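Objective 1.3, modelling of assemblies. Example input:
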Amino acid sequence: MSDHATTLPDGGETSAAHLKSPRRRSRQRLETLRAIVLGAGFPILLILIWDRAVAITGTRLIPSPYQVAVMMYDFTFGGIYDDAFSGTILIHVWKSMQRVYGGFLLAALIGIPLGMMIGRIKVLRQLLDPTISLLRPIPVTAWLPLSMIFFGLGPNAAIFLVFLGAFYPILLNTMFGVRSIDPRLFEAASMLGCSGTGMFRQIVLPASLPAIFSGLRIAHGFAWILIVVGEMTGVPTGLGSVVMDGRTLSRTDLVITGMIVIGACGFVTDRIIVAISNRLLSWSPQHRE
Amino acid sequence: MSNAQADILTVRGVTKRFAVGDGEVEALAPVDLAIPKGEFVCMIGASGCGKSTLLRIIAGFEEPTTGDVSIDGKPVTGPGSDRGMVFQDYALFPWMTVRQNISFGPRQRHLPREEIDKTTDEFVRMVGLERFADRHPNQLSGGMKQRVAIARVLANDANILLMDEPFGALDALTREQLQNELLQIWKRTGVTTIFVTHSVEEAVLLADRVLVMSAGPGRIHSDFRIDLPRPRDVSSPEFNALRRDVARRLTSHLMLARA
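Predicted structure (tokens):
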């Protein structure tokens, strides 16, 4: 087929993107460096302001960054205070991770298929949409007493609360993703002989994946937020319980240490989710980060 | 009229009414149409004359209000792999590569792997996209996307190719090239083709037969046979005479509609 007349201009525009001159590469490296300096610079600035503010006001209610750093060291390796919290970071992180990921995965496992079905099947939408809209505005914290009655004192109540918080963003984003699929894609698939469950697997799921991933990211954030509430339900270990214990003992350095560890865990998992979504959504550059 | 045995597609008394607000709009007056196997038919008409609606009814995406459509004597009840639509906006699956898009139909039929690969290779080659087979649609130009869409339908063994203003969004050079490629593919495969366009020149260039449709409600206004030998020379007097005829027929009812 005489193809050159059209492939040449096409080839021109795409190959320009692959062409990496040394100058372009060094500019790219400079851009990465800039992003790191700016991204890390701002928290360092905040720590400096915090340090100065504590020194100038002379408050004893808030520890200095240095005191928190010492607490962080003791929490991680022990050997300074040698109290109940020394060197216990791993057990707390591990326990909290189990609850956060347990609740989060449960929410994804139920939210994604349910959202796909509600988005696609009108009867289900009519049946469930009003109930979902009714339950969704209820703050997760309001479920705390009931969840303790349902699940008793212990980790299951925490998992339930994390699940509740993560469920709605996953469900609603999946529903939205399915509803916004171009109807032409369904027509194209059905004329090519695709139907029933094949349609869900081959069209609905991949087409709504960008929306599902933004739901997963929001939900994952909520999951870590809710772990503090979840671990108010009387569990002895976990980062949330560390923060609550710090509060009871008036050990603000411990509270801030717990906050920082929760933030760091959330940050790392968020990066992992972004990496997975970039990999799965490489076909859709507008969803890449 | 051609005899009934050779007709691959028959449309009998098809009408379509759409609900708009409280009322109804009559999009298609009773339409009758028979298309013999292997024919290249262009449907032309102003926007709103129901040409796309008729095509979508033939595809099975929409149900006629009255009347029926049959393929090889069997009534159409919904979309099926005997008919393949090529949309103006491509409607490729953006998460699949060129190769996966083209092999989508054969994969639905659970054919043996080697057979799927063989068919896919054949149609990737037919539309000249070997070098781009592992790209995703967003890495392709409009012309390439439309080639994938054509290959996707043909790889699925469709007997009838339905094309809804397929080249309307392309630049003039690419459009001309794709028109030539489409004619070659049509000649090679013998696939019956119904092509909706609003360009008189495109219709006269491509078709064995041009159906001019008129609006309010949509109906087939006139039925031209184009007997010019291919390849057609758009600058020849015969071509231009035919083009003038079709254009005059098209504008005559436009004037009536406006009056």
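Residues 1-17 of chain A have pLDDT under 50 and may be disordered.
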